[in-house]
Design goal:
Number of domains: 1
Strand content: 25-35%
Helix content: 40-55%
Oligomer: single chain
Number of strands: 4
Number of helices: 2
Distance between the termini: 54 Å
Structural class: alpha+beta
Order of helices and strands: HHEEEE
Largest sheet: 4 strands, antiparallel
Length: 128
């Protein structure tokens, strides 16, 4: 009877260990997905501000139907939030490319999201 009880204890320890590993993995995956979603939300805010800049006349501090001359400081007073930091990768007269770098590390790299914004649409690209 003592051997059978030891077998049950060993089996219980193995099952609890596996449950802990699965739980930690699920939590980490959820943290990564939440960070990506937060970056996308913040980038959508910046995209709205960029479109506002695009449509404003020059005399009101806008781009007069152009994204050229746009700066991250013109979109928001802060280029860094609790979710990550944001910068403008590229601008043309028709498009601005915004990038968000998250605070959560996935593997050996940080989470990055790129958003291409033109006058009417936004295209999201998950870099990592």
């Amino acid at each position: 009877m003592g051997t059978q009880q030891m077998l049950y204890v060993a089996l219980g320890v193995i099952i609890v260990g596996i449950a802990i590993v699965v739980g930690v993995t699920a939590f980490q995956a959820n943290a990564i997905e939440s960070s990506r979603n937060a970056l996308v939300d913040d980038l959508l805010f910046f995209a709205t501000k960029a479109r506002s800049y695009f449509w404003k006349p020059l005399n009101l501090g806008g781009g007069n139907n152009s994204f050229e001359g746009i700066d991250i400081r013109k979109l928001s007073a802060r280029s860094e939030t609790a979710n990550g930091r944001y910068y403008i990768e590229n601008t043309t007269s028709d498009e601005v490319v915004l990038v968000g770098v998250g605070r959560v590390v996935s593997g050996r790299d940080t989470i990055r999201v790129r958003m291409r914004v033109n006058e009417s649409t936004s295209q999201i690209e998950i870099i990592h």
